[in-house]
Design goal:
By secondary structure, this protein is of the alpha+beta class. It folds into 3 domains: 2-152 and 246-303 and 312-348, Rossmann fold, CATH 3.40.50.1820; 167-240; 366-579, Galactose-binding domain-like (Jelly Rolls), CATH 2.60.120.260. 19% of the residues lie in helices and 29% in strands. The strands form 6 sheets. The chain has a 7-stranded mixed sheet, sandwiched between helices. Strands 16, 17, 18, 20, 23, 25 and 26 form a 7-stranded antiparallel sheet that branches. A 4-stranded mixed sheet has the order 10-11-14-15, covered by helices on one side. Strand 12 and strand 13 form a beta hairpin. The longest helix has 14 residues, at 102-115. The protein is globular, with a radius of gyration of 24 Å. The two termini are 38 Å apart.
Length: 587
């Protein structure tokens, strides 16, 4: 089916004149190498000619709300746009197995698009979340006609930055997205919207406590969900995950990539690692020099307010305009200035300002340690835990008890897209009142402390069992007491030697744990305090460690763990100087 539309001025700020009419072709068959046909809608200028092509591949329905309007915008600017249902979804043929076929299918779609009579042979890819990961998967197979990609809020390793973090299972998104929302070709009902009739056994707040995890899919879907069971059966970074990880194949990606994400996004590490991977390891000089990154104070998409914080009008950025600058440069050959700008654009929280930098980590970063100290009673924010620049001379420690039957609830942080879990910057005082949370707070700052870069925790600790979790949050406390989380990390203790090398602990033995807390950009202002929260659970964003060392999929037996955190443990902060002239300003 073909439609012709008169031009509509969709945006107030035009990059260049739009075309007069566009043409839309519906449900065009795109053959894959194995004979499966995937169906796409084509948006392109109505006039005769050959145009650069933008490929968008989605499991959510190529005609869902929001897709239609934005693709018209690209076509009005002189692009042909191919919007395709991925394998096994909506109109497309084949079996649905998330992420597993996206590399070959993406390659075949790019090359098909390049051969069409309305194509000039240059192809880009765009889209966010799943639509971003499919770009990485295709680009890692080096399709000859691919010129540039724009993966937003996208994973580069499904193990490291989607379904696990630090070896701990991301229960909320894995179950809510993987086992409930995605098993069928339609979007499965999200039961929290249906409180008036949803029976108790179908409510997330009841399902999430069930064990074993392997059969949790039966609670809502009423049938085994293959990919869910595969995920819980592969809790280690093994061949199952390596097969679809791009982080070991950045050298195969030979085109510029622009990553775009948020400080509180579930997939923040994909945004950061995508940029650094391409900058260091991209397969061509053009790919390395063309790498770009934008990170805002957002979750899984741009917004002004997120969680408990309104970051102001400067926080909003229109991703479409940025994509146009990027694609106009790489696919159209227009002088948009993308090639002359500093490649990293960050929203620095605390001062509410966009700043450009020459790289990530920021050149000249002073990685600075802040140490844990107390009189032995750091439990709760009312305890005596201190965070100091000076390394403590003594060998003190703090203790708490972690009971998986009473885990610390998720309040804010890096999550989205599954169970209805609190996310973003949210006041941490409710969890800091619990005795199973150790709280270490600095003195009131007299001078601003600016950080931007990766954050890591070097934790020396012990537990009285074979396994447990260590959860760490970096918090900015304002003069009124509002405790805003700005970075978080977790490590499942059995992975202290590496995420591909599980080894249970010797009870009571002290270990050094290296905890990835992703990254952030924030200025702790004068009068504020720097705080660190340490505990052993963050539920249901993460599953509960049962402290027994049992298998993730089949474990059911719980034990209470006695935890010890030793002084001398320290967080490593990326301290920088904010360049006053480097503000990106409003776009």
């Amino acid at each position: 089916m073909i439609w012709l539309f008169p031009v509509l001025a969709l945006l107030e700020a035009e990059v260049r004149p739009v075309t007069e009419k566009i043409r839309i072709e519906s449900n065009v068959a795109v053959p894959m190498r194995d004979g499966v046909k995937l169906y796409a809608d084509i948006y392109r200028p109505a006039r005769d000619g050959k145009f650069p092509v933008i490929v968008v591949r989605t499991p959510y329905g190529k005609q869902r709300d929001g897709i239609h309007e934005t693709k018209i915008g690209f076509a009005q600017r002189g692009y042909a746009v191919v919007v395709q249902d991925t394998r096994g979804r909506y109109e497309s043929e084949g079996g649905w197995d998330p992420f597993r076929a996206e590399g070959p299918d993406g390659y075949d779609t790019v090359e098909w698009a390049a051969r069409q009579p309305w194509s000039n042979g240059k192809v880009g890819m765009e889209g966010g979340s799943y639509l971003g990961n499919v770009q990485w998967q295709a680009a890692a197979l080096t399709p000859p006609s691919l010129v540039a990609i724009f993966p937003a809020v996208a994973s580069t390793s499904l193990y490291h930055n989607t379904f696990f973090h630090g070896g701990a299972f991301k229960l909320a998104v894995s179950y809510g997205w993987g086992a409930v929302r995605m098993p069928l070709r339609i979007m499965y009902p999200q039961f929290w919207h249906l409180e008036s009739w949803a029976p108790p056994e179908l409510k997330y707040e009841n399902i999430m406590w069930k064990l074993p995890l392997e059969t949790l899919d039966l609670a809502s879907s009423g049938q085994p969900v293959k990919h869910w069971r595969d995920w819980v059966k592969h809790p280690t970074y093994d061949g199952y995950w390596r097969q679809i990880s791009v982080e070991e194949r950045f050298a195969n990606v030979k085109v510029p990539a622009h990553t775009h994400g948020g400080w509180f996004d579930l997939l923040l590490n994909g945004t950061l690692n995508g940029y650094t991977g391409m900058r260091r390891e991209g397969g061509t000089e053009a790919a390395r020099q063309g790498a770009r990154m934008t990170v805002g104070p957002w979750g899984h998409g741009p917004s002004r307010k997120f969680g408990d914080v309104d970051f102001g009008p400067e926080a909003m950025r229109h991703i479409f305009e940025r994509e146009m600058e990027f694609f106009d440069h790489h696919l159209m050959g227009l002088a948009t200035g993308v090639d002359r700008e500093m490649p990293v654009e960050l929203f620095v929280m605390g001062i509410g300002r966009w700043v450009r930098f020459a790289d990530w980590p920021v050149p000249g970063t002073r990685f600075t340690s802040m140490y844990l100290e107390s009189g032995g009673h750091a439990n709760t924010a009312r305890g005596d835990g201190k965070l100091t620049m000076a390394k403590p001379s003594g060998a003190g420690s703090d203790q708490y008890v972690y009971d998986p039957a009473n885990p610390v609830p998720t309040i804010g942080g890096n999550d989205c897209c599954g169970m209805p879990v609190s996310s973003g910057p949210v006041d941490q005082r409710p969890v800091e009142a619990r005795p199973d949370v150790l709280v270490y707070t600095s003195d009131f700052l007299k001078e601003p402390l600016a950080i931007a870069g990766p954050v890591r925790m070097k934790l020396k600790a012990s537990t009285d069992g074979p396994d447990t979790d260590w959860v760490v949050k970096l918090v900015d406390v304002d003069p009124g007491g509002f405790a805003m989380n700005i970075a978080e990390g977790v490590l499942r203790a059995r992975y202290h030697k590496g995420l591909d090398k599980p080894e249970l602990l010797k009870p009571g033995e002290a270990y050094e744990f290296d905890i990835d807390m992703r990254g952030t950009a924030n200025v702790f202002r004068p009068g504020h305090r720097v705080r660190l929260d340490i505990t052993s659970s963050n539920f249901p964003q993460f599953d509960r460690n049962l402290n027994t060392g049992e298998d993730l999929a089949t474990g059911t037996r719980m034990r209470v763990a006695k935890q010890t955190v030793f002084h001398g443990s320290h967080i490593v902060l990326p301290v920088i100087t904010i360049p006053q002239a480097a503000s990106a300003g409003p776009r």
